[in-house]
Give the backbone structure.
Amino acid sequence: MAKATSHHDTHSTTAQGGWSTKRIAVTALFCALAAVCTLFIEIPLLPGVPWLQYDPSSIVALVAGFAFGPAVGATVSIISYLPHIATASGFWGMVMAMLATFSLVMPASLIYQKHTTMKGAIAGMVVGAVVSVLCCIVGNLIVTPIYAGMTTEQVAALIVPALLPFNAAKVLINCVVCGLIYKPVTKALADSE
């Protein structure tokens, strides 16, 4: 028997297929967790390119996209990076972080939404990883000259020795960790209902 939903359990758009109060709260929790990750955990992966820092916030957004769908993944991919504007990375760092995460999470969660199996998750993460790496390289070619005082040619010279390996390593870490934890996290969230 379906559980009756009271007025207090739903957001005003729920009747039209919108978000429940629980979904809004869980999304806010994922956004906060991703924001903490991006603000307080930064790990340099390659020497010589100090502006390329890894943080695990994309893992949080990817798990959110798998557990609750592409809309939640997209929301976490955008909102959790807004605090970047007040950090040393500033506006452009925020734009690049959003681009990197959004371009990974959206393809992965859209594919997983249609194929909710481990094979679907892996296919989604592979497609998302390729899209994200390409978007990050193009984004660096456009954005890095604006804020780093480098020419486009200087940034292009960094693609093979720095940008490609950094972004490939980043998405590999994100996808492997997500692949290991998304089922237990989803089960824990389902059990809490």
Q: What stands out?
A: The longest strand covers residues 43-44. Residues 1-16 have pLDDT under 50 and may be disordered. The two ends are 15 Å apart (CA to CA).
